[in-house]
Amino acid sequence: MNITQESTGDLTATVKIELVKEDYDDQVTTVLKDYQRNASMPGFRPGKVPMGMIKKMYGKAVLADEINKIISENLNNYLTENKVKTLGHPLPNEDKQKMIDFDTQETYDFFFDIGLQPEVTTEISDKIKINYYKIRVDDESIEKYMDDLRKKNGTPINPEKSEEGDILRGKIVELDADGTAKDGGIENETSIGVDFIKMKTVKKKFIGITTGDKIVVNPLKASGSAAEAASMLGIDAKNIEEHAGDFEYAIESISRFEPADINEDFFASVFPGLQIKDENDFREKLAEQLEVTFGSESDRLFMRQTADNLINSSGIQLPDDFMKRWLTESGEAQIKPEDIDPH
User: Fold this and answer.
1) Co-location of 12 and 84 in the same domain
2) Residues 6 or more apart from 232 whose CB is under 8 A from it?
3) 285 in any annotated domain
4) Which pLDDT band, with edges at 50, 70 and 90, does 333 fall under?
5) pLDDT in tens, 194-247
6) Which end of the chain is more exposed for a tag (fewer CB within 10 A), N or C?
7) Residue 175's domain spans which residues?
8) What average pLDDT does the chain have?
9) Cβ atoms of 92 and 111 closer than 8 Å
């Protein structure tokens, strides 16, 4: 086996791997013998099928598989041992790679393109100025935080009439053009959060209703989202356009979380073990927590801006064409070249 590397640009190269029969013959033979030991065919005792038949049946596939393993292992070893710092992973060079004939060839040449990491130099000095933003904890932030905690620690109830924030449970039935239940249409038991209704005119229908009431609603228009409407109906989002008409929703139950009362039990549930007695002390503790949270956000923003500054000032160059090709050819996500930001 012979492996060579040829530069094709400032940050790209092509690696050539030359295989001869001695590089793969032993591995192929070992695998074929294993096939032979386990082969069972009419007219032959188990494990006694002639090697010629085994090669005819499995030889080409085994050869291709073993060569692929050898190529992958040795390419990775070459890059590691020679300390070649790459970007992404090697890609087959389709221009240089010739068609392979496993029936007739004994020697094989494989070509792979690689992207190389650039040398990065950064200068850190007191000339670099990065703003550090300290987020102020105001009364509004504390009030919102406390409201969220009261809801989180609230008590579930089933009120008679619905309000904003409630969750309704009921049966939704697809309607025909004349307003009757559609033959073969969708029927589904589903929950609908009043706050998830985007259209104000529709949202009003869901407020002030009681168990047993029925509402005519268009799920797609009401939610403004194919995914949410499909979830409501219990179908795949790709089929939602087939069910874009009206539905009848029969209310079976109304659920609500009654916010926790502001008392010592509530304080203890949020800060167990601290024995907070009054609301002022509780708010001070909330402010301390928010300062820590906001401080972490400020730290992350500062680190990101610092990294951006250093990257922009370093003048880093990348093998753009290779990276675009790597992004479009690797991974499960279907990325098109035109979707990639050139910057």
Assistant:
1) yes
2) 172, 188, 190, 192, 219, 223
3) no
4) low
5) 988 888 888 999 999 999 999 999 998 888 888 889 999 999 988 888 998 999
6) C
7) 155-258
8) 90
9) yes
In this prediction the pTM is 0.51
Contacting residues for 163 by C-beta, under 8 A, at least 6 apart: 194, 207, 208, 256
CATH, residue 64:
3.30.70.1050
- Partnered with residue 14 across adjacent β-strands are 6, 113
Q: Report how far apart the first and last C-alpha atoms of the chain are (Å, whole number).
A: 40
CB contact at 8 A, 235 and 186: yes
Beta-sheet pairing, 187-193 with 167-174: antiparallel
Strand order in the sheet with 108-116: 2-9, 12-19, 108-116, 86-92
* CA distance linking residue 211 with residue 161, whole number of Å: 8
Alpha-carbon gap, residue 265 to 276, rounded angstroms: 9
The answer to whether the beta carbons of residues 207 and 168 sit under 8 Å apart is no
Distance of alpha carbon 331 from alpha carbon 343, whole angstroms: 21
**Mean pLDDT of the 297-326 span:** 87
Residues 21 and 97 in one domain: yes
- Residue 9's alpha-carbon distances to 13, 85, 215, 321, in angstroms, are 7, 15, 67, 11
Question: pLDDT tens, 170-203?
Answer: 999 999 989 999 999 999 999 999 988 888 888 9
Please check whether residues 90 and 162 belong to one and the same domain. no
| Structure tokens belonging to residue 127 | 């000339």
Task: Decide which of 68 and 333 is more confident.
Answer: 68
* Helix orientation angle between 51-81 and 21-38, rounded to the nearest 10 degrees: 130
**Structurally, how many domains does the chain consist of?**
2
Assigned domain for 277 exists: no
What is the structure's pLDDT at 332? 55
| CA–CA distance, 182 with 175 (Å, rounded to integer) | 5
Question: What residue type is 137 in one-letter code?
Answer: V
CA 74 – CA 68 distance, rounded (Å): 10
